[in-house]
Design goal:
The structure is a single chain. The protein has about 180 residues and is of the alpha+beta class. The chain has a single domain, classed as Peptide Deformylase (Alpha-Beta Complex). It has 3 helices and 7 strands, in the order H-E-E-E-E-E-E-E-H-H. The strands form 2 sheets. Strands 1-2-3-6-7 form a 5-stranded antiparallel β-sheet. The longest helix is centred in the first third of the chain and has 16 residues. The mean pLDDT is about 95. It binds nickel (II) ion. The site of nickel (II) ion (NI) has 6 residues, from helix 2.
């Protein structure tokens, strides 16, 4: 398995829309395994293919706690079938926006349809952290970042700081302790 470099915002590549996976075959499974390896290496709990510069609708996540066994989840072509009117607000971080965190409000419960590792269609209901992660990763597939869901003022501050950090070469895409990066 290969650990890939994670792209950091602002980067136009992170704004591209990913294309549907035609079939979850060995090529896609290898991609997902590499994404999991990359995510675990960075101490993240979620990663979308565009974050490593691959424009396929594939996401991986693992929201198990440190004292639990790993519980990797892989999805191709995830789509939201239903979202609750009830919303929830939670602090989000992202491996592509290292060291920056902000409260984001999203639907509290979602029903998601996707292709599993065997190319079978599955549906799942998600709430809590899982619902947040799924929505955050699905946003990546459409070129949307969590900062697009906060105020323009805060977004501008975060993106300018990242731009500056890139110029001075001080970027570490590993998640900070005590925060969830998805
Ligand atoms: Ni992210």
């Amino acid at each position: 398995m290969t650990v890939h470099q994670i792209l950091v915002a602002p980067d136009p590549v992170l704004r591209k829309t990913a294309v549907a996976v035609e079939c979850v075959d060995d090529v896609v499974r290898t991609l997902m395994d590499d994404m999991l390896e990359t995510m675990y290496d960075a101490n993240g709990i979620g990663l979308a293919a565009p974050q490593i510069g691959i424009f396929k609708r594939a996401i991986v996540l693992d929201i198990s706690r440190e004292d639990e066994d790993p519980a990797p989840i892989t999805m191709a072509n995830p789509e939201i079938l239903w979202a609750s009117a009830e919303t929830t607000t939670r602090e989000e971080g992202c491996l592509s926006l290292p060291e920056h965190y902000a409260d984001v409000t999203r639907p509290a419960v979602v029903k998601v349809r996707y292709l599993d590792r065997e190319n079978e269609i599955r549906e799942t209901d998600a709430e809590g952290l899982l619902a947040v992660c799924l929505q955050h990763e699905m946003d990546h597939l459409d070129g949307t970042l969590f900062v697009d869901r906060i105020s323009a003022l805060k977004r501008g501050i975060i993106l300018r700081k990242l731009q500056k950090a890139k110029k001075t070469g001080k970027i570490d895409t590993h998640a900070s302790a005590g925060h969830d990066s998805i």
